[in-house]
Amino acid sequence: MGRATGRRAVLRINADSSRTGPDSVAVEEPLEIRIGPPGRAPRRPLAVTMRTPGEDLDLALGFLFTEGVIRCADDVHTAQLCAGDQQPNTYNVVDVVLAAGVPPPEVDPARNFYTTSSCGVCGKASIDAVRTRSVFPVAADPATVAPATLVGLPGALRKAQRTFDTTGGLHAAGLFAVDGGLVLAREDVGRHNAVDKVVGWAVRERRLPLSGHVLMVSGRASFELTQKASMAGIPVLAAVSAPSTLAVELAEEVGITLVGFLRGSTMNVYTRPDRITSGPPLPSRPG
Predict the structure, then answer these.
(1) Which of the given ranges, 19-28, 116-125, 148-157, has the highest pLDDT on average?
(2) Can you give the pLDDT at residue 112?
């Protein structure tokens, strides 16, 4: 698991006793994304995100893509994990060199990105800076998915969360085919980072758009996650918890099927219910 987990001494207390022992904790560290054109000039910092180390290049590529900085893998000449200024060296910098002819983003301190593990759009200077638009026609995606398939996704994603098994402290994002087959799962302390790791993998593997897929997330369905799904061309976004009003409005606008409260055999479909096909009755919860 690398640096995804750390060991700390804790005092465990229960009704009968207390004792000191080790516990596994999810790692949270900053990752600085630097970007610039080819040449010897140093790349300038664009963003700092608090994340769980692992799949850092995919995280950077996914972030740059979903923020509209790059359009495809060909827009990137090189991306490498570099040493930071900290001692000991923790390799918490990703240096991205844009391909020739790709304009670098505006690097203005007033508009720089700083993202915590709980917020993916913090630090942007205006509402206009929050909104990015997808080039993929998500609304036209003919994908359909059965309710019985959807109810199996949370359990399938949970089984893929190896670090969560150790720490109990990570979010997850899973990319599924509409038949329920797991394509990819990623974990992180930040919901948005887990999704960026999925999208960045798709950028690197030249799999975009992710038409005909379902994105399953372990927390709530926020505006930022809906926007990232739209940017990647994903037609169905499902979450175990609630959506926000902006998430529902954006999903309706771009044509994403948004499913919330996907727990047990129940779910709420907030937008584009036409993609949810009829099928055999879902199993009822034990009384």
Answers:
(1) 148-157
(2) 52
Count the residues in the chain.
Answer: 287
- Cβ atoms of residues 241 and 209 within 8 Å: no
Q: At 13, give phi and psi (nearest 5°).
A: -125, 130
Closest CA to 198 of 170, 165, 225, 166: 225
Nearest to 243 by CA among 230, 260, 267: 260
Cβ-contact 238, 262 below 8 angstroms? yes
Q: 91 — alpha (psi -120 to 50), left (phi > 0) or beta?
A: left
In sequence order, what are the residues at sequence separation of 6 or more whose Cβ sits closer than 8 angstroms to the Cβ of residue 188? 51, 52, 54, 59, 117, 170, 171, 172, 194, 197
Q: Which helix (H) or strand (E) segment is 283 a member of?
A: none
Q: For the chain, how far is it from start to end, CA to CA, in angstroms? A: 39
The closest of 251, 201, 200, 182 to 222, measured between CA atoms, is 251
**Residue 6 pLDDT > 90:** no
Tokens 């030249």 locate to: 206
In this model, does residue 178 exceed pLDDT 80? yes
Just list the catalytic residues.
119
Which residue(s) pair with 18 in the sheet?
13
Contact 255, 229 (CB under 8 A): no
Q: Could you report the per-residue pLDDT of 154-166, keeping only the tens digit for each? A: 999 999 887 655 6
Q: H or E stretch including 261? A: strand 257-263
